[in-house]
Design brief:
heterodimer; A: alpha/beta; Spore Coat Polysaccharide Biosynthesis Protein SpsA, Chain A; seven-stranded mixed beta sheet; 19 helices; 11 strands; 54% helix; globular; B: alpha/beta; TIM Barrel; 2 domains; 13 helices; 8 strands; 43% helix; 14% strand
């Protein structure tokens, strides 16, 4: 077996996050305390009047820096709460429905595989295909795997609209909403249903994992961006009673959904559903276990589309849901939803960060006069502790063998997609819509239009470099050349960090062009899925 | 953990270890200040060097071309110590941002100035190291730097350098310098000067005989301590191999005892004198002409047999005509003071050091004064 094949076969094993022991929490608490003291010391150093070069710019730089640091503290505090739920055996005889939705243009063969996998799920259940393709082949596939075919055409609200309609047509008490690109393992429901023994539990979310991340740089990066979230982050949220339904494969108590008038509708429908359920007093559980694997966008364009959809959608929680529901939420839920719903402001802060060198070169504006050595000495403990924390919490990843690492591809991709987040934030501010774009299930050819801002940044960088060299050769006065040498080239070094990320993004987009379309679900051998848990 | 006591122990132990961890960082940070700062400094200097080699060397030089005549002096330390002409120079207070005002001054004076003066205090801060960037800039512009090096002793981290912690390190400070307490700093500086390779002037501890002004003066030190400190510094430079320095001894002649502070012919290359006319700006001052400020002491200073430099030449506007002051000062200067070999204009537009108000000595943009100076030079030198 080749290494790649071996790694691939590893994916089809049930896996769960490491245990949360007192000694692990103790070491983690040490890191957090050291980190917070380092931040206090950095704070004390940062705000000095002789660091100010231009006051408005310094304020701006401080805002983006401290916005980032506050989020860092928040995530650490969140990790302090990590909790792994004690698994509860599912009672027999529960009435369970599995919903999966199909839309025009989605590949039939994918449903063939998904519905087969759903049929293989051990716990007795009924699978429903919520279909608006108006293609009889879909009905046939549903029937082939014993699923109930529901034709639900012309309903508003896309996926959630169909889900709500179907909810009114069934008499089961629990509903698993399965993304059609996800392959559930036979033990999926066994890992979920037991938690509903607690009458207050409204929904149970499991980890989201993928099987096509080795297909491209984009897929790898996109998957890497989610690893920590579907591990320590959600486990922390679980500890604070704030774990959300997000991404795919959440199981709901039907009466809970009924109590809020059905599944939420919108670009961030899962999150909207979560906040409404929490506001109604329902509890949520996150079980950090891998019992299904799905697809992550493989090409840069699809990835950006997905990110645009989320970044626009998540702000709706901030603007529409949170103000209305805030008083019914617990303090931690309020903080958590506030943090999630402002996550994509990273598009705005990154924009400002990227602009700093260009403001200097074209406008002569310098935000801060800081000694670089002092900056390093005061800032590096924070960076070091943040890195240690990042690595330490990886014991709580849901599938640590394939998910451990520095996730640099994820970082490159996150940085390079700032224009998408920025656009999402701006659309939210002016309350403008983006069309509902389903995330592509297969690779798409061609250089995505989302690459344009990246190419623009690269061109601007090269033009600026040319301009600065020309200026320093022919125009700038002799009286400042050497004096400004370190600052000018230091700024270029600063800009290069962004440009390296941008080049990474362009590479991802370029690689996407040559991605061979493939139906990755074809290679999955459902019989080889290993449902025995690897206990650590 | 249901037991409150256990929780308390758990959290306090983590807190203590967390604090200890940061202490280690802080300790390491302090210990590594030297190497990290050193490495970054080296990197910064490399950036300047690389840019000069690959980019700026392709530029057509303007100012250094105008100063082509000066190169034979600049590159010959013996000629610098025994000059055969009069050099003009300037200190301009915005030099840390840009030397453009100095270039403007050149134009207004119709004279490209070969001497440029800058100021550096002693201490631990980066700006108190040898000012390599400015020295390089001055060389690049075709001039030579005069560095006024002020031995303030209160800006050192005394614990770090194992120096006795005292209330005011400036009291008896010159004796401490002579004892070698500050050799760590002097040697570092001397090495940087040596590595710079080009010749420079250093005006060390100026106006050492003024009892009201600087901490290295008589209020804290005996004259023989100043002399011992001076000799110690000069010897340290020689020991390190920094032989590219012209030493300027600069007393304040109005406080008559300056002779007691002279370190000796072997340790001094030039004599520097300040010639600032405060006019009626201060209660203790009146309108003094250049001849009154400098001329009265010329004969004694002349006996030392060293070239002389007016290191700070300027006049305020209040109480007389600045134009006339400069005209009288410059006219026939070589005939009156044959040993005066340099005039360095004091162009501080923002002088807060002497009075509790801001004084403007600047003549950079005063075209009338500049023309007057130029005409006086052309007609009488």
């Amino acid at each position: 077996m080749t290494a790649r094949k071996k790694r691939y076969s590893e994916l089809w094993k049930t896996w769960e996050a490491g245990d949360v022991t007192n000694s692990r929490r103790f070491f983690f608490l040490i890191l957090v305390i050291a980190g917070i003291i380092s931040i206090v010391l950095f704070f004390d150093w940062w705000f000095h009047s002789d660091h100010v070069a231009s006051l408005p710019l310094f304020v701006l730089l401080s805002l983006i820096t401290w916005w980032g640091i506050i989020r860092l503290i928040l995530i650490w505090v969140n990790y302090l709460g990590v909790k792994k739920p004690v698994s509860v055996l599912a009672e027999p005889g529960l009435k369970v429905a599995i919903f999966t939705t199909s839309s025009p243009g989605e590949p039939l063969s994918m449903f063939d595989k998904t519905l087969e996998a759903c049929a293989n799920i051990n716990y007795p259940h009924t699978t429903y295909l919520l279909d608006d393709t108006q293609d009889p082949a879909f009905k046939k596939v549903a029937e082939k795997h014993g699923a109930v075919w529901l034709e639900l055409v012309g309903l508003p609200g896309a996926k959630a609209g169909k889900v709500n309609k179907a909810l009114s047509m069934i008499d089961e008490d629990f509903v698993l909403i399965m993304d059609p690109d996800h392959i559930p393992f036979p033990n999926f429901l066994d890992e979920v249903l037991g938690f509903f023994k607690d009458e207050k539990v409204g929904f149970v979310q499991v980890s989201q994992a993928y099987y096509n991340q080795y297909r491209s740089f984009t897929a790898r990066g996109a998957a890497e961006q989610t690893y920590t979230f579907y591990g320590p982050t959600m486990m922390g949220m679980n500890g604070y009673g704030t774990s959300v339904a997000i991404g795919a494969n959440c199981t709901f108590r039907k009466s809970a959904l009924d109590s809020i008038g059905g599944h939420g509708i919108g670009l961030a429908e899962d999150l909207i559903t979560s906040i409404r359920l929490h506001a109604k007093g329902w509890k949520s559980v996150f079980n950090p276990v891998v019992v299904s694997r799905g697809l992550v966008p493989e090409d840069f364009g699809s990835f950006c589309k997905q990110q645009l959809k989320w970044s626009r959608g998540v702000f709706e929680v901030l603007f529409s849901e949170l103000p209305r529901l805030s008083k019914s939420l617990t303090m931690w839920q309020r903080i958590s939803y506030l943090a999630i719903s402002t996550y994509y402001l990273v598009g705005v802060t990154t924009f400002l960060y990227v602009s700093i060198p260009f403001m200097y070169f074209w406008g002569g504006w310098l935000p801060a006069k800081m000694d670089f050595a002092e900056f390093l000495i005061n800032g590096s403990p924070i960076i070091l502790i943040a890195l240690l924390v990042y690595l330490y919490v990886q014991r709580w990843l849901s599938h640590s063998p394939s998910e451990r690492g520095l996730h640099w591809r994820g970082m490159v991709l996150k940085f390079a997609t700032w224009p998408v987040f920025f656009l999402g934030a701006m659309l939210a501010v002016v309350n403008a819509d983006i069309p509902y774009i389903p995330t592509a299930k297969k690779a798409v050819k061609g250089l995505s239009p989302y690459t344009r801002p990246l190419i623009f940044q690269l061109v601007l960088f090269i033009l600026t470099l040319g301009y600065v060299i020309y200026d320093r050769l022919y125009i700038a006065s002799e009286g400042i050349l050497i004096l400004t040498s370190q600052r000018v080239w230091g700024m270029f070094a600063f800009a290069s960090v962004s440009i390296i990320m941008v080049i990474g993004g362009i590479y991802a987009a370029y690689e996407s062009r040559n991605l061979e379309a493939e139906e990755p679900w074809e290679n999955i051998d459902l019989t080889s899925i290993d449902t025995s848990k690897e206990l650590k | 953990m249901k037991n409150t006591m256990n929780r308390f122990v758990f959290v306090s132990a983590a807190t203590i270890i967390g604090i200890a961890m940061v202490m280690v960082f802080v300790f390491l940070g302090k210990q590594t200040t030297g190497p990290i700062t050193g490495a970054l400094d080296a990197l910064g200097n490399k950036v300047i060097e690389v840019e000069q080699d690959y980019l700026l060397s392709k530029r057509e030089p303007i100012r250094s071309k105008e100063l082509a005549w000066f190169q034979k002096y600049r590159n010959n330390i013996e000629l610098l110590k025994n000059p055969d002409t009069i050099f003009l120079g300037v200190y301009e207070n915005t030099y840390e941002e840009s030397f453009n005002n100095i270039i403007t001054f050149d134009h207004n004076l119709q004279n490209t100035l070969p001497f440029i003066q800058i100021y550096t205090a002693w201490g631990d801060k980066p700006r108190e190291e040898f000012p390599l960037v400015y020295a390089k800039t001055i060389y690049d512009l075709g001039s030579i730097p005069i560095i006024t090096w002020e031995p303030w002793l209160n800006d050192f981290n005394r614990e770090k350098h194992n120096l006795p912690v005292v209330e005011d390190p400036n009291i008896g400070g010159m004796a401490a310098v002579a004892r070698g307490d500050y050799d760590f700093y002097i040697e570092e500086w001397a090495k940087d000067v040596k590595d710079f390779k080009n010749n420079i002037f250093i005006r060390l501890g100026h106006e050492m005989n003024d009892p009201y002004r600087y901490p290295w003066g008589p209020q804290n030190n005996e004259p023989h301590d100043f002399i011992a400190a001076w000799k110690h510094v000069v010897d340290k430079f020689k020991e390190v191999g920094a032989n590219n320095v012209v030493w300027v001894w600069a007393p304040h002649p109005a406080y008559l005892k300056y002779g007691e502070y002279y370190p000796g012919d072997d340790y001094v290359d030039w004599i520097g004198i300040g010639a600032l006319n405060y006019g009626t700006a201060a209660s203790w001052s009146k309108w003094w002409t250049f001849d009154e400020i400098y001329g009265n002491y010329y004969d004694w200073l002349d006996m030392l047999n060293k070239p002389m430099m007016i290191t700070e030449m300027g006049s305020l506007k209040v109480g007389g005509s600045r134009e006339t002051w400069f005209k009288e000062a410059i006219s026939d200067l070589p005939k009156k003071y044959p040993r005066l070999n340099a005039l360095v204009f004091f162009n501080d537009s923002d002088d807060k050091t002497t009075l509790n108000k801001t004084l403007d000595w600047s003549i950079v943009k005063d075209t009338v004064v500049c023309t007057t100076i130029n005409n006086a030079i052309i007609s009488s030198w």
